[in-house]
Design brief:
mainly beta, Thiol Ester Dehydrase, Chain A, Porin, two-stranded parallel ribbon
């Protein structure tokens, strides 16, 4: 069978591929969710031949994934004239995550809003480096340079529900394609942690991502601005709205996360 396949061919069968989750990307007891989501989306980009533009992805983190082989099942649920829907299932003995992806062609329309820009008035190189804390060792964070811009730090016992920062990859060659943006957008702690006194276990349950622009490749040295706003926190869960901007201040994606907080 030749790859990539058309969406029509994928609608007739489920394509299976096997990837390997690398070592040193742990986030607590599981592989970093941003890495897992990026791998799933990248597999779709490589397997599917479509003119549709990446518009939306929704991830459910069902069980912890770890280093080693990861089996992906990719299926086109429906392909219309302009919109195609895909389902990606990630398996390591059991299902560890699912991702629904929407690709859609552009169409002529009388309705168009202006692109969202953020006024950039700071240099990330001059901002303090962000660390999760001396007693918190998260392997995945070692792959990123993160700078704190505004808001209260996690576990500072402060009623502050918003923060912003800058992030880029430390290693040359890591950020090469649009799906890599998921690794950058998911690296930060939930914005609802500032009122806590000390670290507690937490886990993302669902993550919904809307892509603002037809995304091209990015330079390895690019900085990206991240902004988070807590929507609500109650009953052991927090809902967060996030945004990711490029260095020019143009918004690239918006996300919404449901995070379980065990404490």
């Amino acid at each position: 069978m030749k790859y990539p396949l058309s969406a029509g061919e994928l609608s007739l069968l489920s394509v299976n591929c096997t990837l390997e989750i690398p070592e040193h990307w742990s986030q607590g007891r599981a592989t970093y969710g941003g890495m897992l989501a990026s791998m799933m989306l990248r597999a779709l980009e490589k397997q599917v031949d479509t003119a549709g533009i990446l518009r939306h992805a929704s991830v459910s983190f069902i069980a912890p994934a770890g280093p080693g082989l990861l089996e992906l099942h990719i299926q086109c649920l429906r392909e219309g004239r302009n919109v195609a829907f895909y389902l990606i299932t990630a398996v390591q003995e059991t299902i560890v995550a699912t991702m629904e992806v929407t690709l859609a062609r552009g169409r002529d329309s009388a309705v168009r809003s202006a692109d969202v820009y953020h006024q950039i008035n700071e240099s990330p190189e001059h901002l303090p480096a962000f660390s999760f804390g001396q007693d918190i060792h998260l392997e995945f964070a070692e792959h990123f340079d993160m700078r704190w811009a505004s808001g209260a730090l996690p576990f500072s016992q402060t009623e502050d529900w918003q923060f912003s920062g800058w992030i880029k990859a430390k290693k040359t060659g890591l950020i090469l394609h649009p799906s890599s943006l998921l690794m950058l957008a998911d690296a930060w702690p939930p914005s609802g942690l500032a009122p806590l006194e000390e670290p507690v276990p937490m886990s993302t349950v669902n993550w919904s991502i809307d892509f603002e622009l037809p995304l091209a490749g990015f330079d390895e040295s690019d900085w990206f601005r991240y902004e988070a706003d807590t929507v609500s926190t109650r009953d052991g869960y927090t809902v967060i709205n996030d945004q990711l901007f490029n260095q020019a201040g143009q918004r690239l994606l918006t996300t919404r996360q449901l995070v379980a907080i065990f404490g």
